[in-house]
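Honest question from a wet-lab person: if I give you the sequences of every part of a complex, can you actually get the arrangement of the whole thing, not just the pieces? Trying it with mine:
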Amino acid sequence: MSESNEDDWYPLCGIDDLAEGALKKFEVNDIALVAVRIGDEHRAFPPFCPHMSEPLHESGICAGAVLTCSKHLWQWNLLTGEQQGPAEKALLMYETSVRQAKVWVRVGKELVYDYQEEDEEDDFEW
Amino acid sequence: MNVTFLNKQGRVNVECREGETLLQAGLRHGVPLPYSCGAGVCSTCIARSKPGTVTSMWPQAPGAQNLNSAKGECLLCQCVPVSNCEILVPGKVVLTENSGVSPQHQFGQLVNLEVVAPSVATFELELDQSITFLAGQYLLLRLPAMEGYRPYSMTSFSICSQNPTFVIKCVPGGRFSETLFNDKFKAARVDVFGPMGKATFDPAEERDLTCMVGGSGIAGIMSILRQSRDINYFSEHKLTMVFGVRKPEDFFFLDELREIQESVPANINIHLAVSDSSDSNSVPAELAGLPIWRGFVHEVAERVMAKDLSGRLGLLGGPPAMLDGSLRLLLSAGVPVHDIRYDKFG
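Yes, you can. This is the full assembly:
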């Protein structure tokens, strides 16, 4: 998708293009992301599980506003990105909005997880 | 050799025997290491090591394909130490809290192989020492010269057993199963480690059950059903179950399932599912007195047990696609993840 707008906002899809609870992968500004609709709300997030990098558009299961990665059952509240249950990390989120019958997403810089937890664990005495 | 498992929450030192994996050494000492399959498939036991301190017994393990070697990532279930080493275990597990269970090494002899369906057989393991296990658990088995262990769930249940039984599907190219099916097993002593697995069931939980199983994935559920039958558990609790295979001739254990069904018909509903419906005329309405439906396990389960999912304990066993479909059904029905149990072997 090449159409761009001010402040890194890009049109993602039409408001009717996302089925309720269905995870759909997009590429915006050369950055891959997954989008989902929960009622009238839309959410967009990196396409990988923050646990072990599973592709969430394949491993993710939406039930209401709860996203579960089927690999190890990490879960998040899709409305807030907060982890719940056994999950230990929050879901990173891109901003979204609805304008002119389109879903827009703000993708300036790619959101990435640090799977190796370097900031927390690399200070060990090895 | 000495292995130190460490993370933010603490560190613990254990002795690791020659040829023993890091996971086995830790579990044998009660260290609550993360794992699921114990056999190189699921990637749950990813950890980090210093360069050159560990080596993998099975570098081609499916679960090892996405490891970041530059970061020293390794699978605890596949790696053995080549020197004293430190292993960084990710996550918030408190390594110093003893799990209270200690799987052990021993040897056994495979006996009484019986083919029960095309490509499916049952067998018994004569262990050198009896083991105590929970219904739903598995043992890691390794034939001589095999690259790594393979997980097999017990189908039997006994508080203390020296002769657990198993069910195995003959997988083309699968060294363990092909060896069994080629009848070479009689001469083989098997390296055994266990019991393992967290997809267990305790009757004291007093829960109604839903079970969704495919093929030989029924193994651990059979152990649970046999324990439940022996203590008349279903006189007070409900069971709804779907057991699926590809074709009608692929079913096994049906006589026993029918007996379980007939033991408390008011509380037990067991359904069969066949996924290959290319010849629809070949699918009877019932088999061994149990109703057959066409479709995948989760599809049939949605039809026959949609009202029975809420509030129950969900027990799953089978290949990855079946697990994913069943998981999706349970989660969509609002079943919390702590009420869903399975080990991901595929």
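Two things worth pointing out. The helical segments of chain B are 22-28, 175-181, 219-230, 254-263, 297-305, 320-332. Residues 157 and 223 of chain B are 5 Å apart (CA to CA).
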